[in-house]
Write a structure and sequence with these properties.
Strand order of the largest sheet: 2-1-5-4-3
CATH topology of the largest domain: Beta-Lactamase
Strand content: 25-35%
Number of domains: 2
Number of strands: 7
Largest sheet: 5 strands, antiparallel
Structural class: alpha+beta
CATH class of the largest domain: Alpha Beta
Length: 188
């Protein structure tokens, strides 16, 4: 016996994640949305958001096309990251998890959740910037520098170390001690 799960509308509006149901047509017309999704996207009420099409929320047309391509191919999409347009025109990063549902009357639609992942994306960008700054500093120090993990494997080297070993950094990463005599400082 197949069980169906129904969510109380008050619970759905207070979950903290956006819930939606939209038609599987060219526009992706909304059938239902919760208040959280409307607020997340800058709409004052669910009705205003329901007048938009799901496809129109994607900041990039290519992202919308990829989402619907995956949906048609796999009948589901898990944690699809994209930028969505808010009502005011600014964008936010979201992750969409959705699946295609077919009713007995052959009507198809998409049900899913939308999470605001903007703060996660900001953190990723900050970490990437810090990583690049640190690597730039390391690569400009005229001494051999390397880092090892607890298993004594090399996990990071600077350019001077790699050049001294006469290997690419990728060839060194993951190795245990390399022969230190291979590291020779260039004469000035």
């Amino acid at each position: 016996m197949k069980e169906t799960f129904h969510l109380n509308i008050n619970t759905a509006d207070n979950l903290g994640i956006g819930l939606f149901k939209c038609a599987l047509n060219l526009e992706g017309s909304f059938i239902a949305v919760n208040s959280t999704l409307a607020t997340m996207l800058g709409y004052s009420c669910k009705v205003d958001l329901r007048n938009q099409g799901f496809r129109e929320l994607f900041a990039a047309t290519s992202a919308a096309e990829e989402f619907f391509r995956l949906m048609h191919r796999d009948c589901k999409v898990n944690f699809f990251e994209a930028k969505f347009k808010r009502k005011e025109g600014d964008a936010l990063w979201v992750a969409v998890t959705a699946s295609k549902v077919a009713e007995p009357n052959k009507r198809e639609y998409i049900e899913g959740i939308i999470e605001n992942i903007s703060s996660h994306k900001e953190m990723e960008e900050k970490f990437a910037l810090e990583r690049d700054i640190i690597q730039g500093l390391l690569d400009n120090i005229p001494d051999a520098i390397y880092f090892k993990d607890r298993q004594n494997r090399i996990i990071k080297v600077n350019n001077f170390y790699a050049e001294g070993m006469k290997l690419a950094a990728q060839e060194i990463i993951g190795k245990t001690d390399l022969i230190s005599s291979r590291l020779t400082r260039p004469r000035r």
